[in-house]
Write a structure and sequence with these properties.
Layout (H helix, E strand, L loop, with lengths): L5 H6 L3 E7 L2 E6 L13 H7 L5 E7 L4 E6 L8 H7 L2 H11 L2
Antiparallel strand pairs: 1-2, 2-4, 3-4
Length: about 100
């Protein structure tokens, strides 16, 4: 089951792809997002990321406001990542449902 992602989907407008090669993506959070973060419980999102097939590791750099995700590009196509930043809720849930165990 996928948790309610609406608090995180709202924050996508503050996220950009800083660097991406198949198998490794660095996501950058804009400083403007910091005002919204205290109102968002990260636990459901963290638990969900841990259940995505193909995600090998995630590393947070709080000082740089970045997250690096290493993943298996055979299981998660590189084109999925930019779609997750712009897709509507239904598409995001479909994509995640296909990859969550």
């Amino acid at each position: 089951m996928i948790p309610d992602l609406s608090p995180f989907l709202h924050l996508r407008r503050f996220v950009s792809i800083a660097h991406h090669v198949p198998g490794r993506i660095r996501l950058k959070l804009d400083l403007a997002a910091l005002i919204h973060l205290p109102t968002v419980d990260p636990a459901p999102f963290v638990a969900l990321v841990g259940r995505i097939q193909g995600v090998k590791t995630t590393r947070l750099n709080a000082a740089a406001l970045t997250v690096v995700v290493e993943y298996d590009p055979q299981l998660i196509p590189a084109a999925v990542w930019p779609r997750l930043l712009v897709a509507d809720v239904d598409e995001v849930e479909r994509v995640l449902a296909a990859h969550v165990v």
